Input
Amino acid sequence: KYLGFCLEQVVADNELGGLMSALDGEYILPGPGGDPIRNPKVLPTGKNMHALDPQSIPTKAAVDCAKVVVDRLLDRQRQDMGGVYPESVALTLWGTDNIKTYGESLAQVMWLVGVQPVSDSIGRVNKLRLIPLEELGRPRVDVVVTCSGVFRDLFINQMNLLDKAVKMAAEADEPLEMNFVRKHSLEQAEELGVDLREAAQRVFSNSAGSYSANVGLAIENGGWKDESQLQEQFLERKSFAFNADRPGELNKADAVFKSSLAKVDVTFQNLDSSEISLSDVSHYFDSDPTKVVQGLRKDGKKPTSFVADTTTANAQVRTLSETVRLDARTKLLNPKFYEGMLNQGYEGAREITKRLRNTMGWSATAGAVDNFVYEDANSVFIEDPAMQKRLLDTNPNAFRDMIQTFLEANGRGYWETSEDNIDRLRKLYQDCEDKLEGIE
Output
């Protein structure tokens, strides 16, 4: 019965009807936006769409989901590290994702440090409670939070709460082996010659009016020299700290940012919608600090990278490599996907190329792409003469960019393959150039 109701809502498309009613000056029924799988009330379409009250997140449901994900993340890391808890986790917070999930990733940060959001009588979250260690049942895990520019613009109150949450944990008089937030903050205060509260800054973003680390843009146009350039870009653009002691300001805090990242054991992101995956867009790898952390750590060790898949009720925590592998098999290397794209013509071919380029982005920022992904993609799109012709005829520009991506992946050391494959790619690149130049 419920599934039948959902189907009725899906097919009850009222986009055009809603538009015409609005143009006639009629009242349009308001309704929430977001992911229709998470919130069926999004359907039918054609409503006067709204998001949410920023002060109402994280909701209780979001907090409950966050606890499950964080506990699974910590359990997975402990299994891999002989029962040892990670001391610090780096997370990325996205604006639209927190709208869709009503603050799940926001609540994850709070649960890691052992702080509970408290709402008032009308549902506004404006207070925090430090959870006693006896109730928490584990150490407080330190965090480094990088917020997207959209999150910074939409949820400045929540950034204030996060900063207060971390500082509450840092100032708690508890054993250092049970409070990694305090442990690291005390070390940084001494190292940097600042007070404890300044050393405990953990909420970072771009400067006001600036968006993204521009790592995705550099990888997209291929104009980057080496990985250190990408890492410097990330550090330069994402090192503006939010400080609840100076509300309304985002000040450059390179030293605290680098010192905090150098202590990170785990990097973590969320996938909360079935509409967008890791290789659909460049945003995810653009904000991934995995190799940045490796470059800053004194031991040069790469942190473990995890991704939480909360697109279903049974949230899964996988390593980044596992997630990239799954994404490649279900989309880039899946005949149903690429045949569907090719049937769309020019734009479909461009979409395949973009996905391959985004996959290479994960090699550059995290080293998370298995060699077989490139090898199998080469087998599907390059080795087959019939596929070569389809791509060349459908969109020679996209095909040339695809070949260039393969050559770049090999040249940068992300893909090991035979010289025959490289020679074939070079010849095909010249064929594309000839076709684009009109040379027969």
